[in-house]
Known about the structure:
The structure is a single chain. Mean pLDDT is 85; it is low at 1-30, 407-431 and 555-578. The chain has a five-stranded mixed sheet with strand order 1-32-29-34-23, with no helix packed on it. A hairpin with a 5-residue loop joins β7 (118-126) and β8 (132-139). It has two helices and 42 strands. With 673 residues, the chain is mainly β. Beta-L-arabinofuranose is lined by residues 43-44, 60, 71, 108-109, 124, 162-163, 270-271, 291, 331, 333.
Amino acid sequence: MRKYFKKIMCVAITCALVVPVMLPQTAKKAEAINPVVQDVYTADPAPMVCSDGRLYLFSSHDEDVTVNGFFSMNDWKCYSTTDMVNWTDHGTALSYHTFSWAKDNSSWAPQVVERDGKFYAYVPINNKNNTNCIGVAVADSPEGPYEDPIGKPLLGPTYSFIDPTAFVDEDGQAYIYWGNPNLHCALLNDDMISIDTSINGDGFVNGIKKWNMETSHYSELNNVNNNNNNIASGNYKNSVSAALKDMHAQFGVGTRVDNNKVRRPTMYEEGPWFYGRTNDKGEKWYYMIYAANGIPERIDYSMSQSPTGPWQYKGMIMDDNVNGQGTGSFTNHPGIVDYKGHSYLFYHTGKLVDGGGFKRSVAIEEITYNEDGTINAVPFTDAGVDPIEALNPYDKVEAETIELSNSLNASPNDRMGKYGVEKEKKDGASGNINLYSIENNDYIKLRNVDFGEKGAIAFTACTSSSAAKDTEVGTIDIYFDSLDSEPVTWFTVKSSGNADEFVAETIDVDKSVMNGVHDVYMVFTGNAQGELFKFDYWQFEKEPEPTPAPTEVPTTEPVITPTAGPGGQQLQPTVAPSELEKPAKVKGLKIKKKGKKAVNVSWKKMDADKFEIVYGTNKKLKKSIKIKTTAKTFIKIKKLKVGKKYYFKVRAYNTNGTNNAYGPYSKKKKIKM
Length: 673
Ligand code: FUB
């Protein structure tokens, strides 16, 4: 797909000039952010905080049509956010097609972990003989494309090998846990794609440590059926073997009665989620969070001071019902992360329209830890979590960044496909995603968008349509805070003449209206039946800041000619005239922490008038960068954010005050604050 940017300044549109437009009839709905994704069914959430500063959510995907009344799952989805409420859809990250040895309808609970700039997806999937296996796939970016580096299962084929969870500890050792009903543990080698067989030292099942959670492992349970008074009185747990007591201490006393009417030994069912965390007292604890208590599943947890146990059972985090009302799903699956000073539990319910046990959807709640590291239980809610940051409308925002879409309120039969996202097919690579199948009165909502006090002066939208070029195919009507109001502005979409050719156009908007912090609704209207247009991205423009007068002291901004458009291109410095000599490449770049929020950046002395230091949290230093200049060969950079990874590069330049001649950039260096 070829994309180009065309800027057209249109007549300023103010609120006063707005002509009445028909409001969508499906507009009124509960302001609930759970479930997080509303256009497809997502299950088995696996959150991952990435070194690029974003929080990624991987999930399995329940198909719209359930085959043979069982889980019908073929791929794994990827979403990301920076504020916890507006999620960008990255489409399908990988699928059973990623593994040449795998079969369809078995793509269950995944987890992706980052190590040394690579992303490792651990997934349960059946081989062609329909036996459970754990596969591993690797990618250079979280959203893929992923490839199977070993061409065979990492673990298995073995019945019950499902639900992998992986964690890289501070010392670099990586662990993988998995299994239903038994819980298995293995060490991953540093390559993350092979198993270290040394655990247990006994060569048992390739060195895999196993906790036996099956009734058959405890013969005394054969007589403890559900009618046994022993259970009702609670006595049975007192008169059991030392081995069973030990399991109880690690994973709780089982309550589930299996098909043979025999009680499960412990609370553990499946869906383990493993990680390490230091509590407020400075003690390192390991957590095993899991689906528990039979069907319907709730979420329980155990803690340990060693990554391979023994575990201490700590009880429930999320019940399977609130005031007698269930989640609508007989399974549950936890995923827990800390992000920007908050802790979150990701789980799933059957609460999306048409949802249920085989059509589940990811939801999120904020959780809190006690001083000793234990976790406070939370109920599942429709309200979900609050935004932790405002969305910046002056950044390029992918159109598939959404808090809510009206699909939630659509009738059951037209729920799906309203806001499907499609992936541009570029040699099978993970490509661009855009909103498609946009029909009259469809809308998306973005939460907590900060236009600032001065406000926006222009709005750009990048769209495509196959209608005759330049035909008006619809509008994007923008509302603030409620659909029961007047639009604050609207954008007329003109056809690009080719559905695969996206065109960005810009209109002026009224800054006296387009300011402050608002929830933003974009309502799509048009006269055609079916799809009106496709929508790739949008961006507002604010009034330019007055250019600061140049000074000679170090750390001033460089002389640059901004050529960036709303497309978000990186600023390009002025082209060096031929009479200025370009300096050599900067060498010996060093970054040293100076307290919590500052670093000293230094490099080798060399012949040049000045140096330009480019830094930011984006690994490629392509967006959200900051630039400083100095005439010295060192600089202190302040006001960095604790917990974030920053990348730095430096180049030298010669200047005559008006024009600059730049040398090549140094090698990039990174540091975690
Ligand atoms: O999604 C299929 C299975 O259901 C998962 O692997 C389990 O954790 C349960 O959520």
